[in-house]
Amino acid sequence: MKLNKIMDQKNADAILITNMLNVRYFSGFTGTTGVVLATGEKRYFITDFRYTEQADAQVVPNGFEVVREDRQPLERVAELLKENSVKRLAIEDTSVSLSQFRSFEKNFEGIDFVDLGDIFLRERMIKTPEEIEIIREAARITDEAFAAIKPLIKEGAVEKDLSTELEYQMKKRGADGPSFDIIVASNYRSAMPHGVASEKKLESEGFVKFDFGCFYKGYASDMTRTIYLGSNPTEKHLEVYNTVREAQELAVKSVKAGVTTRELDRIAREYIEGKGYGEYFAHGLGHGIGLQIHEYPGVSFKAEEIVLEENMVITIEPGIYLEGFGGVRIEDDIVVKRDGYEILNGTTKDLVKL
Amino acid sequence: MKLNKIMDQKNADAILITNMLNVRYFSGFTGTTGVVLATGEKRYFITDFRYTEQADAQVVPNGFEVVREDRQPLERVAELLKENSVKRLAIEDTSVSLSQFRSFEKNFEGIDFVDLGDIFLRERMIKTPEEIEIIREAARITDEAFAAIKPLIKEGAVEKDLSTELEYQMKKRGADGPSFDIIVASNYRSAMPHGVASEKKLESEGFVKFDFGCFYKGYASDMTRTIYLGSNPTEKHLEVYNTVREAQELAVKSVKAGVTTRELDRIAREYIEGKGYGEYFAHGLGHGIGLQIHEYPGVSFKAEEIVLEENMVITIEPGIYLEGFGGVRIEDDIVVKRDGYEILNGTTKDLVKL
């Protein structure tokens, strides 16, 4: 139904889907080779002999017809376009390569092409209950992995070793893998917003920032926690930490359908500005998560303003980064509800001293 | 120099490189954001404030000028094109998306575009000594990880758990991560050429096939070993194993500069056919490895015939797959030498019974 709505919007007779994330989203197919062709009436899934069995199991229940083509999938698509008298075909211009497009032009004679732009990203913003359940599980795995490596967080530990252990603990709990390069950033490195784990060793006193997540059944989780290693945080450490935490919770508590992404960003940002740290929070407040680690909506003063809708899943992750001193970021995955929010992460946001 | 040669071949005044693997290959930059513009005289590396420090360290020694542009990299490229009177610009049509291309057309007025096709893949076929040294290390990590998990390979072990342990052991030894989804396929599943590790448990008797590798400093390794779990392999198990092993070693011993990819494939295939298993070896013999897990040359009866040159790095991986019974594949990474070959893997190819 979604695809027919999009055909109407784009005034197209059919949609060709070749990006595997979108193939998965619309057909349910989780393998690596296959193409979706949707017309007003029909849903075709074209794949080769290696995947027909998997396709029968995954896409037929979603109303797709499996078309086996071992040699020339594009020629087969061309035949289907003819059979269905397709004149205007919508394509994924943001992922189709120029050379792929040239082979479309060569194979699909007499067809006019229409760009889909970011319309699939907009569709994917609002999750189904099944998608939310998977993301909830991905967040749970993330929480558990963090708890499992706590005993290893101590002076002398190498950042990279901690990231290796986090990844291992996530995989042991069923994750497909990390959802991005894991950030473990200690002391001065914690002031880098994206300090991917390095060979640096943890010192006796200071912040250690962990930003990580996993893919589980294709969906991403994303959590940040900053701990204090040692027993003597300065007043400034506490002030910075508490400011970020307050800002994060203020923003989380403001989440509900009808609020806009920029309003959320502003709530956290104004709080941090009020404490005098505004210039040290240079990035956006968060982003959507789903089949990709960064999806729509961007929750940022820099991104398009989008009105939150029920069942969007976003991150809320303000931070303060003081060069030479250290930095703090706290991040949760949040489901937008009609009248509020659900936090998917269970890990404490109290300042943990280890 | 390579880039100037390509400009000549393509009759272009300049080359724009946006695919990050090729950016890395030609400039040395290992970060995530940056664009290379090469003209006959100049090498520009355009990036934003986050990466200028890294770029200074990585690309300047390779003769590149770092151009910082925080907002509109394409507008900056357009200026550079004008300054250098570029008329014909070569682009990576196989990785540039249609929408990227449209923004090139919009930003780069009066420029004619030339497709690079697969020319970078052809350049990347022949490795430098430095690249080979990195791949050698990646192969060593792969060997060591396999040795480390040997004690876990026993009846009742879950395939997925073994793949998790392999990945963990590779990361602990400095790998960036696995170079593809790890295959652990036991008993009937070993007859699937690409049986990614599943929830299946290892049985008391039968083949277990491991196909895995890592990325290390950006470069891939790729090794397959098949072991026999249990103590009572049948005659058929031994015959299948020995046939694959003989075929693999025959092909490896034939590797040297001047031999073609199809000749190698034929040597292994004819041996297997002679033993009556020809129809059960349906895939190609191997492929190049490098910044990607599958690079040129394809070493296969199906792929373009390419004459091997010194310092190509290829895999040799014949297999026999008998549905319902099991399958065997043995794979090494091989450096092509002027008069022979170097095997990068040290793991035994004797039939290991565990």
TrEMBL record, chains A, B:
Q: Which domain of life is it from?
A: Bacteria
Q: Which residues cross the membrane?
A: none
Q: Which controlled-vocabulary keywords does the entry list? A: Hydrolase, Metal-binding
Q: Which residues form the Creatinase N-terminal domain?
A: 2-126
Note the Pfam families from the entry: Creatinase_N, Peptidase_M24
What sequence ranges are listed for the domain Peptidase M24?
Answer: 133-337
Gene3D superfamilies associated with the record: Creatinase/methionine aminopeptidase superfamily, Creatinase/prolidase N-terminal domain
**Entry keyword Hydrolase:** yes
One annotated GO molecular function:
metal ion binding
Q: Which family does it belong to?
A: Belongs to the peptidase M24B family.
**Protein name, please?**
Xaa-Pro dipeptidase
Q: Which organism is it from?
A: Propionigenium maris DSM 9537
